Amino acid sequence: MKQPNISFLDSLFPSEVIINEVNPAQIQGSIYPEEETFIQKAVPKRKQEFIAGRLCVRKALAKIGITLFPVLMGNDRAPVWPPGVVGSISHSEGYCGVAIAQKPNIESIGLDVEYVGQVKRDIWKHFCNQQELSWINSLPINDQQKIAALIFSAKECLYKCQYPISKRWLNFHDVTISANSNKNEFEARFLVDAGKCFKKGTCLKGKYLISNGYVFTGMTLRKNLY
Predict the structure, then answer these.
(1) Where are the beta strands (DSSP E) in 43-174?
(2) Calpha distance 135→194 (Å, rounded)
(3) Residue 54 phi, psi (nearest 5)
(4) Residue 53 in contact with residue 112, Cβ under 8 Å?
(5) What ranges do the domains of the chain cover?
(6) In this structure, which CATH number among 3.40.30.10, 3.90.470.20, 3.30.470.20, 3.30.300.30 belongs to the domain 6-111?
(7) Which stretches within 167-184 are classed as H helix?
(8) What is the per-residue DSSP string for 129-155?
(9) How far apart are CA 181 and CA 223, in angstroms?
(10) How, if at all, do strands 85-92 and 185-190 pair?
(11) Is residue 189 within 8 Å of 160, Cβ to Cβ?
């Protein structure tokens, strides 16, 4: 398995967003005791991913002058960011990354990465609607799994980005995805209401990158965009 070329990830976000990435297997260091409590009973792989994520967060926060801040987990299992900070964490095979930014410039961020080889055909129907499945099946066979992984990742990215604002959990079939390959952009359209901010029919745009067997998706929301 090739490692993702992380040098392109800046293209997914505006310049105000701080990004940090690592290979979880190569991470060194220890997390804060308060963070450790959330993985005491976790399996080794989960522990490795969690530690990598929190160490990524620590380095990213340091770039905006925030140190010695344990990022805990809320009752909804989402990271509890420092006041005035928004962010998103993602893990996949051989990869962990975080994107953070400061309010009020940016209101919310979504980051997701998926290893294309793990998005098998037998699970497509569980996260794709009929329109998305038709899109996938219209493509050359070598592109189908990539686009399926893009759809999955784009939905995960959207969910992470909208949740801090709407506080609503969404199902995979509550959103439909389309993409513009010329601009490496995707569009997520809500098929249901998600709180007061995201009504049925609302469209949000994000960016994507397919590199070395991985799909990366990023979304940034400013107050005037929703």
Answers:
(1) 72-73, 79-80, 85-92, 95-102, 108-115
(2) 25
(3) -70, -35
(4) no
(5) 6-111, 117-211
(6) 3.90.470.20
(7) none
(8) -HHHHHHHHTS-HHHHHHHHHHHHHHH
(9) 26
(10) unpaired
(11) no
pLDDT band at 10 (very low <50, low <70, confident <90, very high): confident
Q: How many angstroms separate the Cα of 172 from the Cα of each of 60, 77, 110, 124, 154?
A: 30, 19, 16, 11, 10
Question: Dihedral sign, CA of 46, 49, 51, 57?
Answer: negative
Give mean pLDDT, residues 22-34. 91
The pair of structure tokens assigned to 193 is: 């209401």
What CATH number does the domain located at 117-211 have? 3.90.470
How many residues are listed for the chain in this entry? 226
Nearest alpha-carbon partner for 158 in 175, 183, 179: 175
**CA–CA distances in Å: residue 10 to residues 6, 22, 79, 150, 158:** 8, 15, 22, 18, 18
Q: Could you count the other beta carbons within 10 Å of the beta carbon of residue 226?
A: 16
Residue 7: per-residue pLDDT: 58
Q: pTM (2 decimals)?
A: 0.93
